[in-house]
Each structure stands twice: as structure tokens, then as C-alpha cells.
């Protein structure tokens, strides 16, 4: 049991869902797990791994599972053939879960002490901790593992600082970079990593994952099919949908988009519900769903070979995404933004093609 440990909150923590460092459950990705176990057992582990794929599919969880595996079996000629789930009855895994194991450095967005909120990126000061960590602890010859989650959040200075370390890695050091959008990484960082691709989870893996986390967030698997369909193979997205009313937001949004006449009262009620200061996650879920609906329409036309409408919907997606970024950058009123975005989307769906 790890309930008595103080698990540090991160920028993407979800109440009731175990942090990756404290999560014994990992569904799917059997091919990646087998590759990592085989590679470590052969003594040919690359010094830098890039775990690339959609957000919320288990990349960070596997990173901590691998770290625990390597620390439990430091001699790569003796480990078992599979990466086993962590046993939190053992001190090693309890230390990893609590973020206090001296051989693991986990870097993510730091907390801004002035505002009490997490920073929007990983600054260079965080990456400078890597050099100190490796220099301070390398004398005993044990593995030292750096997990950067997500590496996409590094600013330019931070990325350049990491690059210098990756160019001359110390012995028995492993870097695991988690990436949801690897296109944001410097090409020179990508070129120094071995990339492992993670895919969205299949329905069976999603069911297994939801069965594990469901009790912590009050989810009954009886409603799992609709949830899995909307989660796009992401356990994180499923958890957010459960914990923050995402299914209801999606259903209300769809009802507005599909009605012939724009239902202003329902749109205003939705904007009031998700446009407040305490509803940032609900607001993001709404935006994700609207963009997803538009992207689905573009894909459908592309699959049918209708290039012009496919391009029109793709361009509409880009315009709306740009509007969303500007709304966030200038801290504009979210309630008004919800009304504007959903009215634009409604008009496009009812006309059959964006303006």
C-alpha cells in the first residue's frame, strides 16, 4: 500500500488517479514493454529514449516501471524477461512513488512560488538540475535515470541545456523523454534519442485501465462503452471526462451543433457552466471536443476523396485553433469565447461547409 506516502502533485494531476510514479497498472503497449525488457537484458540500452505518442496512454507510467525494473536488477545480465509491475510493499518502489529515490530525477513543470500555480513550461533552471544530479551521484556506479515529462514543455534555453548533456552522456545514465508532440522538440535532441512510438489504447486495454482507476474517481464500468468511444484511446482523457463532466459537455455541445436552429439559451447555459474561473478543465474539454468534431469532418471528406471540402474543414480547424490560442494569450472572456466558438461551429455544420 502507498496511501501513507506523500505523492507530489504535478501540473497534470487528476484527483483519484494514481501518479505515474505510483501506478502499478499499465494496459497495452506489450510490444514496447517487450522491446525494453529485451534491450535492457542484452546490455544494449540506448542512453536516451524518446517515448512518443498521444497524451494519457501510459508513457510516463512505463517510464517509471522501466526505472524500477533497472534499479531492482542493476546487473543487466540477470533481469527477468518481462518488466514487472512495481511492488509498493518494497522500499525501492515506495521511494520511487514518493519521488525520493536518489537514483531518479523526475523533471516536469515546476510550481511558481509567487502565484501558487504550475508554470506553463520547463525553464532552463530545471534542466540544470540534471548536471548536478549526475555529478553528485555517479560515484557509486549505479544507474541514474532522468525522466522529463513532458519534454515538449522545455523552453529553448532548457532544450539547449539538455542537448549538451545528451551529447556527452555519463556512463550508466538513462534519459527518458516523454513527448506528446515530438515536433516541438529540437531535431538535434530527437536525433540523439531512440524513439519508441506509443499508439492509442485499444478498447480491451482501455477497459482494463478503466477498471483499475475507476474506483478512485467513482466510475462504474456499466457506462464504459460510450466513454471509451470518446476517449480516443487515452486513459487520461477518459479520467478527465469522468471527473469533470466531459461526457455531459460533449453531449450538450453535440445537441447544439446538430440542431437546425442555433439554440442560444442552451449555448448560454453551457458557456456559463464552463466559462468560469474554476472550470478551466471543463473549458478545455469543450474546446477539444469541438476541434475533434471538425477534424472528424475533415477526415471523412478526405477518406471519400472530396479534397476541396476536406481542405475547407482543415482550414476551419486551423482558424478556430488560432482563435483559441489568441483567447488564451490575451486572457479574453471565456464565456463569450464559448458562445463565439460554438456559434461558428454550428454555422459550419448546418451549412455543410465552413465559410
Describe the protein in words.
- The chain is α/β, with parallel strands linked by helices and 355 residues long.
- The protein has two domains: 178 residues, P-loop containing nucleotide triphosphate hydrolases (Rossmann fold); 108 residues.
- 52% of the residues lie in helices and 7% in strands.
- The protein has a five-stranded parallel β-sheet with strand order 2-3-4-1-5, with helices on both faces.
- Strand 2, helix 4 and strand 3 form a beta-alpha-beta unit.
- The longest helix is centred in the last third of the chain and has 24 residues.
- The N and C termini lie far apart (56 Å).
CATH class of the largest domain: Alpha Beta
The overall strand count is: 5
**What radius of gyration results from the CA coordinates?**
22 Å
Helix-strand pattern, N to C? HEHHEHEHEHEHHHHHHHH
CATH fold type of the largest domain: Rossmann fold
Strand content: 5-15%
Shape: globular
Low-confidence stretches: none
By CATH, the superfamily of the largest domain comes out as: P-loop containing nucleotide triphosphate hydrolases
The span between the termini is 56 Å
Organism: Phyllobacterium leguminum
Protein name: DNA polymerase III delta prime subunit
InterPro entries: DNA_Rep/Repair_Clamp_Loader (IPR050238), P-loop_NTPase (IPR027417)
Pfam families: DNA_pol3_delta2 (PF13177)
Amino acid at each position: 500500500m502507498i496511501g501513507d506516502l506523500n505523492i507530489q502533485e504535478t501540473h497534470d494531476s487528476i484527483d483519484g488517479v494514481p501518479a505515474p510514479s505510483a501506478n502499478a497498472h499499465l494496459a497495452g503497449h506489450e510490444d514496447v514493454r517487450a522491446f525494453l525488457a529485451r534491450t535492457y537484458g542484452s546490455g544494449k540500452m540506448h542512453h536516451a529514449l524518446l517515448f512518443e505518442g498521444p497524451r494519457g496512454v501510459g508513457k510516463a507510467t512505463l517510464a517509471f516501471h522501466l526505472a524500477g525494473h533497472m534499479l531492482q536488477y542493476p546487473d543487466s545480465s540477470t533481469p527477468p524477461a518481462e518488466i514487472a509491475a512495481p511492488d509498493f510493499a518494497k522500499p525501492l518502489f515506495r521511494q520511487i512513488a514518493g519521488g525520493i529515490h536518489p537514483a531518479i530525477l523526475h523533471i516536469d513543470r515546476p510550481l511558481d512560488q509567487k502565484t501558487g500555480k504550475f508554470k506553463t513550461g520547463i525553464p532552463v533552471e530545471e534542466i540544470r538540475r540534471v548536471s548536478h544530479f549526475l555529478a553528485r551521484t555517479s560515484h557509486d556506479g549505479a544507474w541514474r535515470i532522468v525522466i522529463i515529462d513532458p519534454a515538449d514543455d522545455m523552453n529553448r534555453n532548457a532544450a539547449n541545456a539538455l542537448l549538451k548533456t545528451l551529447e556527452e552522456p555519463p556512463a550508466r545514465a538513462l534519459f527518458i523523454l516523454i513527448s506528446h508532440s515530438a515536433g516541438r522538440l529540437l531535431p538535434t535532441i530527437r536525433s540523439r534519442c531512440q524513439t519508441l512510438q506509443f499508439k492509442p489504447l485499444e478498447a480491451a486495454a482501455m477497459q482494463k485501465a478503466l477498471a483499475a482507476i475507476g474506483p478512485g474517481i467513482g466510475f462504474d464500468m456499466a457506462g464504459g462503452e460510450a466513454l471509451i468511444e470518446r476517449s480516443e484511446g487515452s486513459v487520461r482523457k477518459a479520467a478527465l471526462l469522468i471527473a469533470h463532466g466531459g461526457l455531459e459537455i460533449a453531449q450538450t455541445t453535440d445537441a447544439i451543433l446538430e440542431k437546425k436552429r442555433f439554440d442560444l439559451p442552451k449555448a448560454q447555459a453551457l458557456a456559463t457552466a464552463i466559462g468560469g474561473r474554476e472550470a478551466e478543465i471543463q473549458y478545455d474539454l469543450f474546446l477539444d471536443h469541438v476541434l475533434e468534431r471538425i477534424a472528424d469532418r475533415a477526415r471523412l471528406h478526405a477518406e471519400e476523396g472530396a479534397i476541396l471540402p476536406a481542405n475547407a474543414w482543415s482550414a476551419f480547424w486551423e482558424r478556430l485553433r488560432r482563435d483559441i490560442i489568441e483567447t488564451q494569450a490575451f486572457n479574453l472572456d471565456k464565456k463569450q469565447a464559448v458562445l463565439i466558438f460554438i456559434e461558428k461551429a454550428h454555422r459550419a455544420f448546418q451549412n455543410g461547409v465552413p465559410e
